[in-house]
Design brief:
The chain has 123 residues and is mainly alpha-helical. 60% of the residues lie in helices and 8% in strands. The radius of gyration is 17 Å and the shape is globular.
């Protein structure tokens, strides 16, 4: 009980601050599912502008969620990967996905398939 008095914020507030921007969760999801490049993050997000994506990636790097990897031979060849801090969000994302799956209007078979996909990638 004494430890909670020392906290300035509720611990969940810190995580929410990291992932609260609109595209952050989508990019983290993409990284867990194998996307690593700028153009790949935009593939299924037509409303995501280059400027917004660029700013989002910079913020995520600043917050320690991702690491930018620049090819030393080709400076235009840039990839992104999750840091350990970013990877630690896997269980949170899995639980969010499961709430969505469980509350969605899916058949039991589809729910099981979705659980398998997300557990393979996020757990």
């Amino acid at each position: 009980m004494e430890a909670t008095k020392k906290l300035k914020n509720f611990p969940i507030d810190n995580v929410i601050q990291l992932i609260r921007k609109k595209w952050v969760i989508h990019i983290i999801h993409d990284l867990f599912f194998g996307k690593t490049r700028f153009h790949e993050f935009k593939e299924d997000k037509p409303n995501l502008s280059n400027k917004v994506l660029s700013n989002c990636l910079k913020d995520m790097e600043k917050n320690g969620l991702i690491h930018k990897i620049v090819d030393k031979y080709d400076k235009k060849n840039i990839r992104y990967k999750l840091t350990e801090k970013g990877k630690s969000l896997n269980k949170i994302l899995f639980e969010i996905a499961m709430v969505t799956v469980d509350s969605g209007n899916y058949s039991d078979n589809t729910k099981n398939e979705l659980r398998d996909v997300f557990s393979d990638k996020l757990l």
